[in-house]
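Worked example 3. Consider a protein that binds magnesium ion.
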Amino acid sequence: MQTPLLQVKHISKTYQNSKGWFRNEKVQAIKSVSFDLKRAHTLAVVGEAGSGKSTLARILAGEMAPSAGDILLHGQNLNDTNQRQRCMDIRMIPQRPSLSLNPRLRVGMQILAPLVQHRSLTRSLRQQKLYATMRDVGLLEEHADYYPNMLSASQRLRVTLARAMIVDPEVLVFDQTLSAMDITMRAQLINLLTMLQQSRGMAYIMIGHQLSMIRHLADDVMVMQQGEVIEFSPTDEIFESPASEYTQRLIYAYNELVQGPNS
Ligand SMILES: Nc1ncnc2c1ncn2[C@@H]1O[C@H](COP(=O)(O)OP(=O)(O)OP(=O)(O)O)[C@@H](O)[C@H]1O
Ligand SMILES: [Mg+2]
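Given these inputs, the predicted complex is written out as structure tokens:
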């Protein structure tokens, strides 16, 4: 059997509150979360507010360490990989991508930033890589000289995608990235991500409740509640026969929206 691209094994995270009334109180944000993700596959993660989705995302992207558990990429434990490499392999797209751009820097420089930090490439190779990545996400070469405010919202989103992709990551994590988008932009992004997944074989982890997006993109859906995984199934199964009460509510509300209340 082929080793899955990503294996998450019994990840837990306990936060220690350092401020306020509940100082020194511990919050167990996620408890023994495990799953596998194959190359070119998409996993959707849904769950109530505070169920631990962002905590999981940040741990995967290397922003913080888990309290316990292991993450393996190509069968290799990420604890044994250096932090730099690891941050290139799994990258997170922020919730409001436009806000993560610096208004005073040309977008070409911003897309290149992770590459400059991470790799010693010649100037001309870097330039080639920049233009190739920009083309991949549907930007033009001349956009490299623009400032973010000269671009449309959709183009700015493409800039943040290009910035994540310039280091050839294997996994992209989207934490509620689509929730603030209008329908047109969401549709554009879904098409773009589908295309990029086919050409590059990237795996996606999509956090959020956009069920139409989940239906289009996700192979599997993982449902979290109070830090635990309560359901993990192929997307079709989740939509046809949701098992947990939370998932049932989510799916029924979606069906009502799509088909009308009386169907
Ligand atoms: N830095 C932190 N310090 C202490 N507790 C935290 C911290 N970050 C998150 N928590 C707590 O951990 C739990 C999980 O939070 P998390 O942000 O991962 O949930 P979430 O599923 O992403 O929620 P949402 O849907 O609102 O984004 C919550 O109880 C939250 O209050
Ligand atoms: Mg969150």
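Take a moment to read the result before moving on. DSSP finds nine helices and ten strands in the chain. The two ends are 43 Å apart (CA to CA).
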